[in-house]
Design a protein that fits this description.
Blueprint (H helix, E strand, L loop, with lengths): L4 H5 L12 E8 L2 E8 L6 E6 L7 H11 L6 E5 L14 H11 L7 H14 L4 E6 L2 H9 L7 E7 L6 H4 L6 E4 L8 H5 L11 E2 L19 H28 L1
Parallel strand pairs: 3-4, 3-5, 5-6, 6-7, 7-8
Antiparallel strand pairs: 1-2, 2-4
């Protein structure tokens, strides 16, 4: 696993946001309750599972998810509690220590994250959702890509802003198209999208680089009191909403 350098050495912000949704218990795993943050209009039949970055339910991440939930006609968004304990801020900037922490607490298979992700899907389904996409921020995109690579995945699209660990190798088994919104800090994502063109998905993959934004601006490293970050964050949320609405429309047209 190779993280973007900025993913290692940039601390979280002290941003504030009043959540528009609410938390509830999603499931009990190993005797511990795991929550899910739910936001968006309950009458929407389009669901999104969102995977936060390594700073968890950070106010800017929640603001970003709340924005996506109201874009393009609205989505029901579920953000499962992937981390029971958050990464200690004391190891920020220490890439070996951060990687070791992620291998212990953030490994897709070891932590059985698919159980939480699929529980989030079923929670959305129980509230009337019939189509599903998945997104992640930073490291969360890597987790989302693995979920979208599962045989029989319910997801119609996958991607996210400032993706970490996103390369030709980590997308080779995806079962749906990608939307990638890198910042100035990530590697070139065009070859990544080119590498899956042969799969001929019903909707073409999408890419836009936010050259004036730093890694993590929609998540724990973002501060939307900054007008430029707010503008770029809203644009990223709306692009994701547009794309997920498009893949849902295509799917619904086939039914």
């Amino acid at each position: 696993m190779i993280l973007v350098n900025a993913c290692c050495n940039t601390p979280p912000t002290d941003a504030q946001w009043q959540p528009k949704g609410q938390e509830k218990v999603l499931l009990v795993a190993n005797g511990e309750e795991r929550k899910v943050y739910r936001t968006g209009p309950k009458d929407s039949k389009r669901g999104i599972v969102a995977i936060y970055d390594i700073f968890g339910y950070h106010p800017t991440s929640i603001q970003f998810f709340d924005r996506i939930a109201t874009s393009n006609g609205g989505f029901q968004v579920a953000v499962p509690e992937i981390f029971k304990e958050l990464m200690p801020l004391s190891i920020t900037g220490d890439m070996p220590a951060m990687l070791a922490w992620l291998r212990e607490h953030g490994d897709y298979k070891k932590s059985n994250m698919i159980e939480l992700i699929m529980a989030a899907v079923e929670d959305l389904r129980a509230d009337g959702c019939t189509t599903f996409s998945i997104l992640g921020q930073c490291w969360g995109t890597y987790i989302a890509l693995q979920a979208a690579s599962e045989d029989g995945t319910p997801f119609l699209a996958v991607g996210g802003p400032h993706p970490s660990v996103t390369n030709i190798e980590t997308v080779k088994n995806v079962k749906c198209p990608l939307i990638l919104l890198p910042s100035k800090d990530e590697a070139d994502m065009i070859p990544v999208l080119e590498s899956i063109k042969h799969k001929n998905f019903p909707v073409e993959s999408f890419h836009k680089r936010f050259t004036n934004m730093h890694h993590g601006w929609t998540g724990g490293r973002g501060d939307w009191t900054d007008p430029e970050q707010l503008k770029a964050g809203v644009e990223a949320a709306d692009l994701l909403g547009q794309y997920f609405a498009k893949v849902a429309e295509v799917s619904e047209g086939k039914q």
